[in-house]
C-alpha cells in the first residue's frame, strides 16, 4: 500500500503528551454533553447490544430466554458479535444499566480514540499536522453525535487505531512486544467487529525497516503473523463456547452468511433489506444453521448472476460513503419528539457535509502540493491527482445521486500506486490506506450503510491532516544559483 520502510521517529516527545491530554479533555466534554443530553432508550441494533450486555452483567451469558412448553428456557446467542455487549457489561455490573451508562462509556471511548489518533499521527507526519489530526477527530460532528448511540463503531475504531499505534510505538526497539500487544487489541476488536482482523497483514508495514526486499518482507511477515496468531488465540475461547452451546461452530458470530445473502439476493438494493423465509431458508433449527443456509443461498445467487451482483458494488459503496445519516435516524427513532424531520434534516446535512469534506481531504492526504519546484512529470501527475479529487467532489455535489464514494476508492488507489511526485508515505500511511481498503472491500461484497464508515472516520481524520504535503520529488531538484 505504498509504505516505505519502517515507522518514522515521532515528531516531538516533549509537549505532545500534554497536547494529548488536552485533546482528551476537549473530546470528552463534547461527547459527554451529547451522551447525557441526547441519549434515550437504545433502538435498532442498539437494543440488542444493550439487552445482551444486561444479560451478561446479570451472569446469564450472551443469551435470552425462550418459552418451550410453557417453561422459560435459557437460549444462547451468537448472531451479533459479543464484544461490544461484553464490554458494556463490565460497566453495567459496576455502575448499573441506567440509561446514561452506555452513552457515557461511549463518550470516554470516543475521547480515547482521539488521543490515539494523535499518538499514531506522530509517526506519520510533523508535530503540527499530528495535532491537526487529533483536532479533526475531536471536533468531527459525526463522532461527537455517536456518543449518544449504543452502537459498536467507536469501540471498533478504538481497537483499529490502537493496534496501529502499539506496533508503531515498539517497531524499532521492541517489535515482538508491539506485535503481541497489537494482536491483543486486534483480537478483542475482532470480537466487536470480526472484519477488523483483515488489517493484520498491514501491521507488518511497521517493522519492515531497511535492507533488501527479502529481509524487509520477512520482518513484516513475522510481525503480521505474530499479530494474527495472537488475535486468533484471543478469539478462540469464544469460538469454543459457540461450538459447545450453539447448534454448530461459529468463529465469532452468525451474521456473515446473512449479510452476504442481503447483498446478493434477487431483491438486493445495495443496502440492508430484511430477508424472509420465502427467500430461501424456510426451515432452520438454530442460528448457525440459519447463517449457513443464507450463506449458501447468497453464493448461489452470486453464481447464478455474477454480473448483477458486481453491478451492485457502486450502490453498496454509495450507501457506505455518500452520506452520514444514521446518527440522526437513530436519535429520531429513540426520541421522536426531540427530533422532528426538519431538525433531523439539518443534522444530516451537517454530518454529511463534514464527512464529505473529510473524505476529500483524506484523499488529498496522498497527494502532494503541485506548487514549488518539481520535475515536470511529478508536477503534472500530482496536479492530475488534485484535479481528480476536486472533480469527484464537484460531480458528487452536482449529480442527482450525490456520489462521493469514488473519493474512498481514490484513497486506496493513491496509496497503492507509485505515483511520481507523491508525498512521503511510511508505514503509518500504508496501514491507514489498508484500513480504508478493507472497509470498502467488505461492503462491496456484502452491503452498505453509512454507519459502517464511522469505523474509519478517525483514520480519515489522520489522512486529512496530511493533505497536500510537499512532494518527495522536490528534494531531487537542484536549487537555483
From TrEMBL:
Recorded superkingdom: Bacteria
Membrane protein topology class: Multi-pass membrane protein
Transmembrane segments: 18-39, 101-121, 142-168, 180-208, 220-238, 349-368, 380-398, 404-422, 429-446
InterPro entries named in the record: LipidA_mod_glycosyltrf_83, RgtA/B/C-like
Molecular functions (GO terms): pentosyltransferase activity
Glycosyltransferase RgtA/B/C/D-like domain ranges (all copies): 83-238
Cellular component terms per the entry's GO annotation: plasma membrane
Major location (coarse): membrane
UniProt-listed GO biological process terms: lipopolysaccharide biosynthetic process
UniProt KW keywords: Cell membrane, Glycosyltransferase, Membrane, Transferase, Transmembrane, Transmembrane helix
Subcellular location: Cell membrane
Protein name in the entry: Glycosyltransferase RgtA/B/C/D-like domain-containing protein
Organism: Polyangium spumosum
Amino acid at each position: 500500500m505504498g509504505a516505505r520502510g519502517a515507522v518514522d521517529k515521532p515528531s516531538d516527545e516533549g509537549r505532545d503528551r500534554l497536547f494529548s491530554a488536552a485533546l482528551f479533555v476537549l473530546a470528552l466534554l463534547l461527547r459527554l454533553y451529547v451522551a447525557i443530553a441526547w441519549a434515550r432508550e437504545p433502538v435498532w441494533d442498539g437494543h440488542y447490544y444493550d439487552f445482551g450486555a444486561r444479560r451478561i452483567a446479570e451472569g446469564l451469558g450472551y443469551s435470552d430466554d425462550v418459552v418451550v412448553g410453557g417453561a422459560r428456557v435459557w437460549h444462547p446467542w451468537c448472531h451479533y458479535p459479543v464484544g461490544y455487549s461484553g464490554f458494556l457489561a463490565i460497566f453495567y455490573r459496576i455502575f448499573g444499566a441506567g440509561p446514561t451508562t452506555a452513552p457515557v462509556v461511549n463518550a470516554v471511548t470516543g475521547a480515547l480514540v482521539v488521543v490515539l489518533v494523535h499518538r499514531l499521527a506522530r509517526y506519520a507526519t510533523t508535530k503540527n499536522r499530528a495535532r491537526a489530526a487529533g483536532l479533526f477527530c475531536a471536533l468531527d460532528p459525526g463522532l461527537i453525535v455517536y456518543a449518544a448511540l449504543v452502537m459498536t463503531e467507536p469501540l471498533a475504531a478504538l481497537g483499529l487505531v490502537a493496534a496501529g499505534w502499539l506496533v508503531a510505538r515498539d517497531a524499532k526497539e521492541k517489535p515482538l512486544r508491539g506485535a503481541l500487544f497489537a494482536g491483543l487489541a486486534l483480537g478483542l476488536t475482532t470480537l466487536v467487529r470480526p472484519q477488523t482482523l483483515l488489517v493484520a497483514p498491514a501491521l507488518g508495514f511497521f517493522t519492515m525497516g531497511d535492507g533488501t526486499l527479502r529481509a524487509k518482507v520477512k520482518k513484516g511477515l513475522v510481525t503480521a503473523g505474530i499479530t494474527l496468531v495472537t488475535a486468533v488465540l484471543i478469539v478462540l475461547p469464544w469460538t469454543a463456547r459457540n461450538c459447545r452451546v450453539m447448534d454448530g461452530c461459529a468463529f465469532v458470530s452468525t451474521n456473515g452468511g446473512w449479510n452476504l445473502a442481503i447483498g446478493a439476493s434477487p431483491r438486493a438494493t445495495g443496502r440492508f433489506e430484511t430477508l424472509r423465509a420465502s427467500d430461501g431458508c424456510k426451515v432452520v433449527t438454530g442460528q448457525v444453521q440459519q447463517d449457513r443456509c443464507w450463506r449458501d443461498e447468497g453464493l448461489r445467487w452470486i453464481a447464478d448472476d455474477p454480473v448483477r451482483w458486481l453491478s451492485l458494488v457502486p450502490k453498496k459503496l454509495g450507501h457506505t460513503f455518500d452520506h452520514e445519516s444514521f446518527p440522526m435516524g437513530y436519535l429520531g427513532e429513540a426520541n421522536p419528539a426531540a427530533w422532528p424531520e426538519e431538525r433531523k434534516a439539518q443534522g444530516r446535512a451537517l454530518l454529511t457535509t463534514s464527512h464529505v469534506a473529510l473524505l476529500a481531504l483524506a484523499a488529498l492526504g496522498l497527494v502532494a502540493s503541485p506548487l514549488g519546484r518539481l520535475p515536470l512529470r511529478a508536477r503534472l501527475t500530482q496536479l492530475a491527482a488534485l484535479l481528480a479529487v476536486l472533480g469527484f467532489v464537484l460531480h458528487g455535489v452536482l449529480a442527482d445521486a450525490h456520489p462521493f464514494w469514488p473519493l474512498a476508492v481514490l484513497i486506496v488507489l493513491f496509496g497503492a500506486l507509485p505515483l511520481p511526485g507523491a508525498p512521503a508515505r511510511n508505514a503509518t500511511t500504508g496501514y491507514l490506506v489498508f484500513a480504508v481498503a478493507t472497509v470498502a472491500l467488505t461492503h462491496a461484497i456484502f452491503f452498505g450503510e453509512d454507519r459502517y464508515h464511522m469505523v474509519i472516520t478517525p483514520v480519515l481524520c489522520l489522512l486529512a491532516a496530511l493533505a497536500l504535503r510537499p512532494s518527495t520529488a522536490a528534494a531531487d531538484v537542484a536549487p537555483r544559483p
